[in-house]
Amino acid sequence: MASRSKHATLLGLRHLTLMVIAFFMLVPFYWVIKTAITNENIYAYPPSLLPQNPHLFNFVDVWYLIPFPRYLLNSIIVSTIAVVGNVVFNAMAGYALTRQFAGRNLVLALFLSCMLIPFQATIIPAYLITAKLSLLNTYFGLALPMLSTIVCIFVFKAAFEAVPRSLIDAARLDGLSEWRIILRVLMPLSKPAIATNVILTFIWSWNNFLWPLLITRDPLMQTLPLGLARFLSYLEDTTGALYAFAVMVLAPSILVFLMAQKEFIRGLTSGATKG
Question: Are the CB atoms for 139 and 218 separated by under 8 Å?
């Protein structure tokens, strides 16, 4: 009885701690939304907790003062290309790393060492390669660095290793090729890994600023992060409009995460426990 009471107390403290942490993390988001719909001075003291005279004029300004629909379309296209390429290439690489072959440990070591190199250190060679391929100012060029990421490769590797070996052996006995094993056996059983790849790649691609800044020359090819910099030159008092822009940019990422959060958590923890 005492142990049960102690367990309930610890569980309650854990939930209380999580609620406090969630509160402090959600307050900035609430303040962004409140400022976007009220234009209130964020430095006003004492601050008002509830929005006063809310309106949507800032969202209208964002939509019409810059080609926001075009930026939104560009970001959607680039993120879609990046997500599809990421899932396809990472699944193939992850499956290859589950197989035994000469030099496998060396390949794993090289992958892990590449994770230590920041993207900024390789951005010049990446730009030169993109220019040689005539992909500057194109959707595919914008998505090129995100077509495969090492973190997501290891997510697929962990998910594939968690699949019982007997299923793969049975598929081979039925005459399935390696490609069909990936498509018909491993991928349907690796939905959490797919969801993790989709969410991480979408967020990274959606919020990418430096790479589009380097390879885009046509303003109509710019994505939302670049559109924000252009938007700042249109208005003198941009506080409310800037926050409205932030809300409109953040909304798709939050929506994607909410739609697949359970699979995302399972994908990050896949392979952590077996049996």
Answer: no
Which pTM was predicted?
0.83
Whether residue 15 is predicted with pLDDT greater than 80 in this model: the reply is yes
Q: How far apart are CA 128 and CA 124, in angstroms?
A: 6
Classify residue 26 by burial, with Cβ atoms within 10 Å: 0-12, 13-18, 19+.
Answer: exposed
**Complete domains list, the chain, with CATH:** 1-55 (no CATH), 66-269 (1.10.3720.10)
Q: Within a 10 A sphere around the Cβ of 22, how many other Cβ atoms? A: 10
The residue whose two tokens read 């939302």 is 224
**Residues contacting 85, CB < 8 A, separation 6+:** 143, 146, 147, 148
Give the number of other Cβ atoms within 10 Å of residue 58's Cβ. Answer: 24
Q: How many other CB atoms are found less than 10 A from the CB of residue 248?
A: 18
CA separation for the pair 116, 3 (Å, rounded): 45
The amino acid at 151: V
- pLDDT tens digits, 227-273: 887 777 666 556 778 888 888 888 888 888 787 777 777 766 665 44
Burial 152-187 (b: 16+ CB within 10 A, else e): bbbbbbbbbebbeeeebeebeeeebeeeebbeebbb
